[in-house]
Amino acid sequence: MNAGVIKAFMLKEFKELLRSGLIIMVYLMPSMILILFGYGMRMEVSGVRTLIIDNDKSELSRRLASKFSHSKYFDTEVGNLTEKEALREIKRAKKDTVLIIPPSFQKRILKGEKVQIGVFIDGSFPIRAMTIQSYIEGTLLSAAEEFSKGYEIKGKIVKINQRALFNQAMRDENAIIPGVIGIVLLVAPAIISALLIVREKERGSIFNFYSSPIKKTDFLIAKLTPPFLLHSLNIFILFLWASYLFKVPFRGSFLLYWFSSEIYILISLSIGLLVSVVTERQIVAVVLVIILTIIPGFLYSGMLMPISSMKGESYIQAHLFPVMYYNHILYDVFLIGEGTASFKTSLYLAILVLYAAVFLSAGVFLLKKELK
Amino acid sequence: MRAFYTVFSKEILSFLRSWGLVAVVLYSFTLDVYMAGEGIRIKPQNVKVGYTDESGGVVAKKILSRFHKPEFEKPIFFKSQKELKEAIFEKRILIGLVFDAEFEKNFLKNGKAEIGVLLDSTAATQSYISLSYLQNILFDFLETKAPFETAVHKLFNQNSDSSMFISFTELLSVITLLSVILTAVVFVKEKEEGTWEIMLLTPANSKIVILAKVLSQVAVIMVGITISLGFVIFEAFDTPLNGSFWAFMILSLLYSFTSAGIGLFIAALSESVVQVAQLSIVIMMPLIFLSGAWTPIYSMHPFLQKLSLISPLRYYIEGSESIFFRGTEFVDLWPYFLGVGALSLLFFAAGYKKIGELF
Question: In this structure, how many other beta carbons lie within 10 angstroms of the beta carbon of residue A167?
């Protein structure tokens, strides 16, 4: 350990970061991704382009249609097409769903017979199709209740009294933003640290390191400290976006958020370091980091799919990537607020520390201070 | 023509020689697409349900017996509501059902009862959809006499199998990402390695040099698409192709020219590969955002809807989905071809002009 040498190297790294414009990347990219995803990833669908084909043209069928046109979820048009023409509208992606009310709809309802309403949904986007289906079924159900008022409803009723824990309003922002922070802080530092080393390799200036008397650990401390410090600021920036722009509540301890995020950035930097060990070219390093971080970041974050419903390999893989642990803590501090009082949160924090230690030492061990 | 051929094969050769790049490109087109499709299953599956039962009756048992695979795992019993909440917090279960002490009595006597449902809303989508499953289960159980029923046909993908869809979308994003970055790097590499001047000195028309360089990367992308379609999309996921294969290939070719145009633009602006990576992200993210891949275009703000008209990815994604899933006839595909075609002319011309200034 030689403080003077480290200081000199660190100064050089800082200057390079500033001059090469990488500094813009450090601060622009995370905020941009968070804002784009925050506004862009909506599970809720509104304004579904709906075509209702009313073959009955009675009072009841009109009331049913108006149920749809009064909902913000549907952008309704009552048309007079044949079924085939309607399907072509879906094929041309002009309409997302088509409802067909059969002839003598009213007559049969008043008689108490069962009527079938045909619903066609464009299923090429599965998740959207499922959401649309549940909206339609919900709307039809409430219409059914309304129509059967005045008649005796037969059978028993069990009501569902639902309560969404941690996110009462079921806001999309609350569910997504913490997860996006988890991805951003995994990807951005890793790219920087991989590039910092591979760039020297590609340009040949890595020989300065090979031939200089600086120790490997000193070199790495000098290399990784600048991005670590710069990215630490991002922890606060991202927090501010989440709280003030997206109004995500923050219920836990800020200290826990801060500390675990620092550890997480350290993990991300060491992933970049490991990538830089195996690659010789910057472009390969960038793509490799993106592959290694973004996909598991999304897959195993629990955002798209709850970890509890994973099976077999993917369940194990989810536990192998650090994202899951950090995201658990993130959702805890933002939405729940149990903090270290919960055994699981403390355990996950410990696991993160372990990851950081293992990855860093692996990076230090594998980086060679000589030509191959 | 010979100059064109020479530059073209030089670029192909130098691509093949950098094994790292070849490996990364191959990986992106095959394993990456496969992993995304295999891993992300948006439709709730094996949802873990927990319950506490203070009613001690048969009705609750009967309802619980209706939770079965593939949507739900066998419900797990918890002693109290507190334990149930804890389990949700620790993500051991997604949904908790609470049958209170009055449940059985109310149900049998009054015909009206309430089930408490606790949802983990940090996984909002799954919770929502699972809730609608739950509603259906109750509906079936009670044999409710609704005046009408629905026959839902989810066209083109009745079971909402998401792996087909996700793998396909992943392929489209790989195409976007790689065609921009590869094209930009082909030029910037020369800048960085200092061979730019040598390139300028070659006794060949600069137009031919630019075109050959771009086409070599477009060729790499097209080969990648073919490999990905053959091994992953058709072979591993059995994705149906309801439209014409060649329509998709032509659309992809047009589209890769659009992104190559963006790549040229980026190449003109950046001095190093690092800058290429930065600029690609800064330019491509908004275009992807506007493409409707995340939020359906009709749910966007009207201003953004207008803006999305300039995202080539919008036409490409919608067009490819139409070809693959909706099986749209060739005649009805013209808006997509027009959109991608017009934008590819525009973007390519702009990028070409920008990089041409450096020659």
Answer: 24
For chain B, the structural domain boundaries read 2-40+161-356, 49-142
What is the C-alpha to C-alpha distance for residues B270 and B258, in angstroms, rounded to an integer? 19
CB-based contact B24:A288 (threshold 8 Å): yes
Q: Answer yes or no: do A291 and B181 touch at CB < 8 A.
A: no
- Which pLDDT band, with edges at 50, 70 and 90, does A189 fall under? very high
Residue B283 in contact with partner chain A when CB distance is under 8 A: no
Minimum distance, in Å, between the CA of residue B346 and any CA atom of chain A: 25
Q: Which of A88, A91, A166 to mutate to test the interface with B (most CBs of B within 10 A)?
A: A91
A355's CB contacts (< 8 A; 6+ apart) are A267, A322, A325
The ipTM value here is 0.71
Separation of CA B150 from chain center: 30
Q: Compute the average pLDDT of residues B89-107.
A: 81
Predicted confidence at residue A230, as pLDDT, reads 92
Q: Is the Cα dihedral B344, B321, A134, A336 positive or negative? A: negative
Domain boundaries, chain A: 3-41+168-366, 48-147
Nearest CA among B209, B221, B186 for reference residue B18:
B186
For residue B90, what is the nearest residue in chain A, using CA coordinates? A344
Residue A78 to residue A52: CA distance in whole angstroms = 5
Q: Which of B73, B124, B185 sits opposite A175 (nearest CB)?
A: B124
Query: Chain A within 8 Å of B175 (Cβ-Cβ)?
Result: no
How close does chain A come to B6, measured CA to CA in Å? Answer: 24
Q: Are A14 and A221 in contact (CB under 8 A)?
A: no
Q: Is the CB of B150 less than 8 angstroms away from the CB of A75?
A: no
Fold of the B49-142 domain: abc type-2 transporter like fold (3.40.1710)
Report the residue of A130, A153, A277 to disrupt the B interface, i.e. the one with the largest count of B CBs within 10 Å.
A130
pLDDT at residue B38 in the model: 76
| Alpha carbon distance A274, A193 (integer Å) | 9
Q: Select from B47, B262, B304 the least CA-distant residue to A305.
A: B47
- Can you tell me which residue has the tokens 């087109």? B29
Distance CA B86, CA A235 (A): 28
Cβ proximity of B230 and B320 under 8 Å: no
Average pLDDT score over residue span B88-101: 81
Res A91 pLDDT > 70? yes
* Mean residue pLDDT across chain B: 82
Of B73, B142, B161, the CB nearest to A156: B142
Q: Confirm if A267 and A352 have CB atoms less than 8 A apart.
A: yes
Contact B117 A160 (CB under 8 A): yes
Contact B117 A163 (CB under 8 A): yes
Of residues B195 and A311, the one with the higher pLDDT is: B195
- Is the pLDDT at B223 greater than 90? The verdict is yes
State phi, psi for B96 to the nearest 5 degrees.
-120, 130
- β-pairing verdict for B112-120 and A97-101: unpaired
What is A48-147's CATH topology? abc type-2 transporter like fold (3.40.1710)
Return the residue matching tokens 């970041």: A297
Among the partner-chain residues B35, B138, B192, the one whose CB lies closest to the CB of A158 is B138
Structure-derived torsion over alpha carbons of residues B28, B33, B39, B44, reported in degrees to the nearest 10: 140
CB B160 within 8 A of CB A130: yes
Q: How far apart (Å, rounded) are the C-alpha atoms in residues B285 and B6?
A: 35
CA-based nearest residue in chain B for residue A147: B147
State pTM to two decimals: 0.77
Cβ burial, residue B276 (10 Å; 0-12/13-18/19+): buried
Q: Report how far apart, in Å, the C-alpha atoms of A190 and of each of A26, A150, A323, B310 are.
A: 11, 65, 13, 32
With CB atoms and an 8 Å threshold, state whether B119 touches A162. yes
Of A42, A109, A280, Cβ closest to residue B147: A109
